[in-house]
Amino acid sequence: MKTLKGEQLFLRALEPSDLDFLYNLENFEKLWEVSNTTTPFSKYILKKYLSNSHRDIYDVKQLRLVICKNEDESQVGFIDLFDFDPKHKRVGVGIVIFSEEDKRKGFALEALNLTCNYAFTHLNVHQIFAGITEDNQGSINLFEKAGFEKSGVKKDWIFSEGNFKNEYFYQLIPNS
C-alpha cells in the first residue's frame, strides 16, 4: 500500500509473528502511564488480541499498525488510531518507538505523517487528535513538528507515581 510506505519505513497490519515484540512493549512499565495500563499482559491475552486485529476500524473504532524499517523490515514501534468517530470525522493517534537506539532518527515523524495521510485520505476524517502529558517534551516537539496545535489542557488528568499531571490536547485540522 503506497499510502503507508515512506522513505525510511513502512506501516503494516499486525501479524502473529509480532507477539514477542508486542509482549515486550505492552509489559514495559514506563509506557503504562500513556496506555492506561496498570497490570501486565500475558502472551495468551495478546495472542487473542492479535487474532482479532484484522477487524475493521469501523467496527472496533481502532487500528494498530506496526512501524517497520524499509531496509530490513525490523519492527521499531507501533502507531495507533483510536476512538474513531466517523460521524464527527475524527480519530485519535498515539505512537511509540520502543528502542532507544531507534529514537531520534525521524521514524516517529515519518510514521505520524504517513498515518495522518492515511486517516485523511482513506478514513475521510476532518481532524486527528492526541493527548500528551505536560512533561513529555519529545512528543510535544514531534506533534508540533507534524503540524498539530495545542488547543487545550486537561488539568490533573493523568495520575502517575503519586502525582497528577496535566495532559495537553493537540489537534491537526487541515486548513483551519
Q: In words, what does this structure look like?
A:
Keywords: Ribonucleoprotein, Ribosomal protein, Transferase. With 176 residues, the protein is of the alpha+beta class. The protein has a single domain, classed as Aminopeptidase. 28% of the residues lie in helices and 34% in strands. It has helices at residues 19-26, 32-35, 43-51, 57-60, 107-122, 137-145; strands spanning 9-13, 63-69, 75-85, 90-97, 127-133, 149-160, 163-172.
Q: State the major sheet.
A: 7 strands, mixed
The tally of beta strands, per DSSP, is 7
Count up the helices: 6
Beta-strand content: 25-35%
N-C termini distance: 29 Å
**What is the CA-based Rg, rounded?**
16 Å
Q: Which second-level CATH architecture applies?
A: 3-Layer(aba) Sandwich
SSE layout and pairings?
Elements: E1 9-13, H1 19-26, H2 32-35, H3 43-51, H4 57-60, E2 63-69, E3 75-85, E4 90-97, H5 107-122, E5 127-133, H6 137-145, E6 149-160, E7 163-172
Parallel strand pairs: 4-5
Antiparallel strand pairs: 1-2, 2-3, 3-4, 5-7, 6-7
Helix pairs in contact: 1-3
A few lines on this structure:
The chain is α+β, with helices and mostly antiparallel strands. Helix content is 28%, strand content 34%.
Task: For the structure shown, list the relevant keywords.
176 residues, Aminopeptidase, 7 strands, Acyl_CoA_acyltransferase, Acetyltransferase, ribosomal protein N-acetylase, ribosomal protein, ribonucleoprotein, acyltransferase activity, transferring groups other than amino-acyl groups
